[in-house]
Amino acid sequence: QDGDLKFPLESVKKLKGFMDGNRHVNPRMMVPMASYSPCQEKNLPEEFWPVCKRKDAPMIFRRLSLAAEDDLCEICANAACAGCF
User: What residue segments make up the domains of the chain, in order of their start?
Assistant: First the structure.
């Protein structure tokens, strides 16, 4: 979940795979570059298509990708969970 938007965890995991696999890094700065958008992926789950039309899509995708980090259990990755941290 991101704000009022809700997505299945499996779809968010797919999104994270797209974002991790296509992260472009500037070798001088060693920081990810913002040129990649998962909206360019033809296999992007359709529940993310409306997000692609929003101005804040990059931030939404970044937050969703962080929610699917491997070190979080699926319960703690869910916004409905409280007290996990």
Answer: 9-75
- What tokens appear for 71 in the block? 């070190």
Task: Check residues 76 and 64 and name the one with the higher pLDDT.
Answer: 64
28-33: long-range contacts, CB 8 A cutoff, minimum separation 24: none
Yes or no: say if 17 and 65 are a contact pair by the CB < 8 Å rule: no
Kindly tell me the burial class for residue 64, based on how many C-beta atoms sit within 10 Å of its own C-beta (0-12, 13-18, 19 or more). buried
Would you put residue 65 in left (φ > 0), alpha (ψ -120 to 50) or beta? alpha
Tell me the pTM.
Answer: 0.64
* pLDDT at site 18: 83
